[in-house]
Amino acid sequence: MKKQFLSLMLCTVLLITVMYVPVCANKYPGETEDSVVVMFNMNGHGKPIQNIYITPGSTVPAPPDPTAAGYTFCGWYTDQNLTNKFNFQTPVFSEQTLLHAKWETTSQQETTFQQETTFQQETTFQQETTFQQETTFQQETTSQQKTTSQQEAISLETVIFNPAGGKWWDGTTSPRIITAEAGDTITIAEAPTREGYVFKYWEGSEYHPGDKYQVQAGGHMFTAMWAKERLTDSNKADQTDTSPMELVGIGVTQHSPVWTKGSNESASFTSNAVFKDFRHVKVDDKIVDEGNYDVKEGSTIVSFKSTFLERLSVGRHLVEIVFTSGSAYGIIEIKAQDNQQTAEAAKSSHVLPKTGGSSRYYPWLTMSLLSIGGFVFLTSKKRG
User: What DSSP element (H or E) covers 121?
Assistant: First the structure.
């Protein structure tokens, strides 16, 4: 009788186990076999937030902002350095995403506000005086009444004047660079000088010193165009020959103005200079190693390799292609990789350890095996 009772109990446990395992398979709300998980690192403050499970490609519902005594919550970030803020409107495809909470102490915020208020009070009079004493260049722009703080917030464009072998009034030969907001009006630079040549105009298109130019989005490059002097019988320079065939000037005719990190693409600059006169390339006035770019004819095409461009900081960099007869200049802007590309790259290179996965099935599986084993043992003993 006792053996029959034990057999009945084991069968009951086995039945409950088999029925209960499927029910416990989805332990967390919203979790399915194909779902992706979003986890929250509180960084030592506030109450823990439960993982959120969503279908791949959907957006994450933003949880309520956590609170902590003495701290102010400043948002969720995708990196431990708290530099890339997470956008809850961006679809998530990664199997696991870990978000980090950013906090600031309340005392720090109060001190910062007091410091900013004091600074504003001390500089109010200075700002008003500066506004009244604007320079000639500010008067030429279409935004004469912009304060210094407003100008810093606006993205400025770069305008380059390449003397193309000539010299400025102070004896320098480097290009002159002007930064201004797109839509502003600037004055075309004075003409440089070059021994044995006569300055004709600034190419891009044809501009002359003193002309007005409206800055375009993406910036602009002006290159000095020269005409060789012809000597008369009296050995005096004859500057009347304006034949287009006599015009010379080295410049960049085509280039890649913007390059985004992570694109794995090259960036090319084409100069109208003769290929055989090519010497080397400079970026930010530093000679670039030959292994970091390729150069070929047509007229001269320089292609920077992506491995080199990845090492450049985000921002604009001056490119100089040096020839025996002069230099051609250009600007390349390096942009940071966007959040979507960063997430896809992180998915392929680094996967966080999975939490709450198949390990929770092991206790029930063990119980099932023990129940089956006990039942078989008692049955075989009863028959013996």
Answer: helix 106-132
Distance CA 361, CA 358 (A): 6
DSSP state letters, 206-237: EE-TT-EEEPPTT-EEEEEEEEE-EE-TTS-E
Q: Are 87 and 49 part of one and the same domain?
A: yes
CA distance 52 to 30: 7
Q: Which two tokens stand for residue 175?
A: 């290009």
Strands (E), 112-211: 157-162, 176-180, 185-187, 197-203, 206-207
Other C-beta atoms within 10 Å of 2: how many? 6
Total length of the chain = 384
Q: How far is 303 from 140, CA to CA, in rounded Å?
A: 38
Which two structure tokens, joined as six digits, stand for 215?
């800055």
Number of domains in the chain: 4
In the prediction, which pLDDT does 293 show?
95
- Give the global pTM: 0.40
Listed in sequence order, the residues at least 6 apart from 71 whose beta carbon sits closer than 8 Å to its beta carbon are 45, 46, 103, 104, 105, 106
Q: Average pLDDT by consecutive 10-residue portion of the chain (384 residues)?
A: 64 58 51 84 92 90 93 94 93 90 78 55 54 50 48 70 87 87 90 89 84 86 84 52 53 77 90 89 93 91 93 90 86 81 49 46 62 65 58
Residues 193, 196: Cα–Cα separation, whole Å: 9
Do 41 and 128 lie in one domain? The reply is yes
> Angle at CA 59, nearest 5°, toward 56 and 62?
135
Query: Which strands make up the sheet holding 71-77, listed edge to edge?
Result: 52-54, 36-41, 96-105, 71-77
Residue 179 sits in a domain whose CATH number is 2.60.40.4270
User: Is the domain of 245 the same as that of 268?
Assistant: no
Residue 21: inside a domain: yes
Q: Beta partners for 178?
A: 159
Cis peptide before 306 (omega within 30 of 0): no
